[in-house]
């Protein structure tokens, strides 16, 4: 019961903070109401929330997202439905990365407290499920955290650099996390 409350209360609190946003003033959307994004990340081994890029591993993330504009505490934000496919190959640092090729479905809220005419920076968080548990993260439920920087090439297209972390928030003893550094592109419509 205690773990359920710890998970459900922050999620419900975050959802209550969302409100409809004016897409014209949101640096993610530049006046549009929908966004599609695709990205690819390279894996790093590390348990930190922002893993340093010093231990690259043969592990990648392919990611798709659909987003709509929101605000969070009156800051411009986006709410996204995400699907990622992790792809591992080979062994490194004692882990068989091939066994971690698992789809992940999750929801996120990204907020941009820093932005200019063509650029934006921020952080995001969310939760979801990996479809298979494993010895690296022994639960299907996952939390995600991301920091990112973006640059708008046109009013419809932007590029993003991100650092992303997946873990189960220590809900189980096995929680070695997944970490990625990646590049992506977004398209507004």
Strands, helices and their partners?
Elements: H1 2-17, E1 18-20, E2 35-44, E3 56-72, E4 75-88, E5 91-92, E6 95-96, E7 103-115, E8 119-130, E9 141-152, E10 157-167, E11 178-188
Antiparallel strand pairs: 1-3, 2-3, 2-11, 3-4, 4-7, 5-6, 7-8, 8-9, 9-10, 10-11
Short description:
By secondary structure, this protein is mainly β. The chain has one helix at 2-17, and strands at 18-20, 35-44, 56-72, 75-88, 91-92, 95-96, 103-115, 119-130, 141-152, 157-167, 178-188. The strands form two sheets. The protein has an eight-stranded antiparallel beta barrel with strand order 2-3-4-7-8-9-10-11. A two-stranded antiparallel sheet has the order 5-6.
Can you put this structure into words, describing what you see?
The protein has one helix at residues 2-17; strands at 18-20, 35-44, 56-72, 75-88, 91-92, 95-96, 103-115, 119-130, 141-152, 157-167, 178-188. The chain has one helix and eleven strands. A hairpin with a 3-residue loop joins strand 7 and strand 8 (119-130). The model is unreliable at 4-9 and 11-16 (pLDDT under 50). It has 189 residues and is mainly beta. The strands form two sheets. It has an eight-stranded antiparallel beta barrel with strand order 2-3-4-7-8-9-10-11. The chain has a single domain (2-188), classed as Beta Barrel (Porin). The termini are far apart. The chain is elongated, with a radius of gyration of 17 Å.
């Amino acid at each position: 019961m205690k773990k359920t409350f710890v998970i459900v209360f922050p999620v419900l609190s975050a959802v209550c903070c969302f409100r409809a946003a004016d897409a014209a003033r949101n640096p993610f959307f530049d006046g549009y109401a929908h966004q599609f994004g695709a990205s690819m990340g390279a894996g790093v081994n590390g348990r930190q929330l922002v893993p340093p890029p010093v231990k690259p591993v043969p592990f990648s993330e392919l990611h798709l997202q659909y987003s709509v504009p929101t605000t969070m505490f009156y800051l411009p934000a986006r709410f996204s439905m995400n699907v990622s496919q992790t792809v591992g190959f080979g062994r490194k640092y004692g882990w068989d990365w091939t066994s971690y090729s698992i789809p992940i479905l999750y929801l996120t809220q990204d907020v941009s407290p820093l932005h200019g005419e063509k650029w934006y920076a921020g952080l995001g968080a969310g939760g979801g499920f990996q479809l298979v548990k494993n010895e690296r993260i022994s639960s299907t439920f996952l939390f995600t955290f991301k920091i990112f920087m973006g640059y708008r090439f046109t009013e419809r297209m932007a590029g993003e650099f991100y650092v992303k972390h997946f873990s189960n928030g220590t809900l189980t003893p096995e929680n070695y996390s997944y970490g990625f550094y990646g590049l992506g592109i977004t398209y507004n419509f």
